Amino acid sequence: MGKCIVFVNQKGGVGKTTSAINIGAYIALAGKKVLLVDFDSQGNMSSGVGVSKDKPTIYELLAGQVEGEKAVKKTPVENLDAISASIDLSGVAIELADQEDREFYLKNALEPLKAIYDYILIDCPPSLGILTLNGLAAADSVLVPMQCEYFALEGITLLLQTVQKVQKGINPDLKIGGIFFTMYDSRTRLAQDVVMQVKSYFKDVVFNTIIPRNVRLSEAPSHGLPICKYDPECVGARSYAKLAEEVIRRG
């Protein structure tokens, strides 16, 4: 059975989608079969790997209108597939509000695909609402991208409290897969201080690899390509390659 990893941070603009795409791409390049699941109605992950937001999307899969494999689309990277999202997904939160077992719709929809893929990576919206709750319920582990700024320290505490609640009531097998830093600027004292504080508190939970600020990483999604296809020699690409290796090693 494949390992299911959810990328979560309730703060937007921290590199969550970029990280899910590029970690997934490098795991695929390592010979593993990987499925990216866009679970954000903005559909940024879909655009970032050049897949269509036309039906079928994750919405049709959740609604039972298609079976799992019918929703899967190919990306430019070998071994890397994706299920796209569109604005239709924004209505799911309302539709699920009064449904019994509303936290488990994504888990149930993805269950048949776990036998096909080595890794399923879920990109959640920047919130702690019903969609993110579904992502946490479906996952084996959660990865937390963290920007090196003061408010990120406050946000990560709230996020980990939410994860603990999910572990107690919804998904007791959910593990903290790790925290990693994004958009790191070594020239600023604040970035260095945030890294030291988080590492001293969370210790081995924090990944060794730090993702630096890199223009090429920002450019790649507009071309519908992971960084390994857009500029594999840039510092951002080398950093995500190392981070993907760490993710694989941690199992």
From TrEMBL:
Which part of the chain is the AAA domain? 3-176
Q: Which domain of life is it from?
A: Bacteria
Instruction: Tell me which Pfam families the record gives.
Output: AAA_31
Q: Which CDD domains match?
A: ParAB_family
Question: Which parts of the chain span the membrane according to its record?
Answer: none
Q: Which InterPro entries match?
A: AAA_dom, DNA_Partitioning_ATPase, P-loop_NTPase
Under which name does UniProt file this protein? Chromosome segregation ATPase
The species this protein belongs to is Treponema bryantii
| Source species taxonomy | Bacteria, Pseudomonadati, Spirochaetota, Spirochaetia, Spirochaetales
